[in-house]
Recover the amino acids of this structure.
């Protein structure tokens, strides 16, 4: 009986540290968060765009301690468009070679800013970034839609004005050409009349 009482007396001292450890682990796990500033982006082909993620950071975190792995899933294939390991940045796929730039100063502040240049329609898809800081790990994703260039057909009032002006110019030019042609024909007729008169004069003199 005394033995049972001794165990029961020490049960609170065994249970409390266990619950404290569990709560501490949950707190540490929940304190690290990876988030996106926008859930979706839209851009046109051949333009540039900046995708951004945020993560929980500490003041003494160095770039060499960060591990960032970012990939694209466009529904047909997976691409690794950005990878940070031991402070070195690179892209594993040639599709994004030379088209991805990161802001290292933003990384120190807990922000992943990746600029994608010369966008293509096949760049559309789900962009996922996974972050490992050594004291926390998480990931989040956003969607990018790249549309092709559209040809705009302008049917505005300005176009109608220009069409009217061009038509008027063509009509005026046509009238001027007719006037010039008509003017050039008249002197030839006068010369013919003079020749006929000169031919008639000797004939009259002879008849006399």
């Amino acid at each position: 009986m005394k033995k049972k009482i001794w165990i029961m007396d020490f049960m609170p001292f065994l249970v409390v540290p266990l619950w404290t450890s569990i709560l501490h682990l949950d707190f540490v796990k929940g304190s690290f968060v990876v988030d996106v500033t926008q859930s979706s982006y839209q851009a046109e082909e051949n333009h540039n765009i900046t995708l951004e993620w945020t993560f929980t950071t500490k003041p003494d975190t160095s770039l060499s301690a960060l591990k960032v792995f970012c990939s694209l899933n466009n529904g047909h294939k997976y691409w690794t468009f950005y990878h940070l390991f031991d402070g070195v940045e690179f892209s594993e796929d040639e599709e994004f070679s030379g088209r991805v730039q990161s802001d290292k100063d933003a990384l120190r502040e807990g922000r992943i800013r990746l600029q994608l240049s010369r966008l293509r329609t096949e760049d559309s898809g789900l962009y996922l970034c996974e972050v490992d800081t050594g004291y926390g790990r998480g990931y989040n994703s956003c969607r990018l839609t790249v549309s092709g260039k559209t040809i705009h057909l302008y049917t505005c009032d300005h176009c109608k004005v220009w069409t009217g002006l061009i038509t008027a110019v063509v009509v005026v030019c046509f009238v001027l050409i007719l006037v010039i042609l008509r003017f050039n024909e008249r002197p030839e007729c006068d010369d013919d009349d003079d020749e006929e008169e000169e031919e008639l004069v000797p004939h009259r003199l002879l008849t006399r």
Summary: Confidence is low (pLDDT under 50) at residues 1-8, 10-29. DSSP finds three helices and ten strands in the chain.
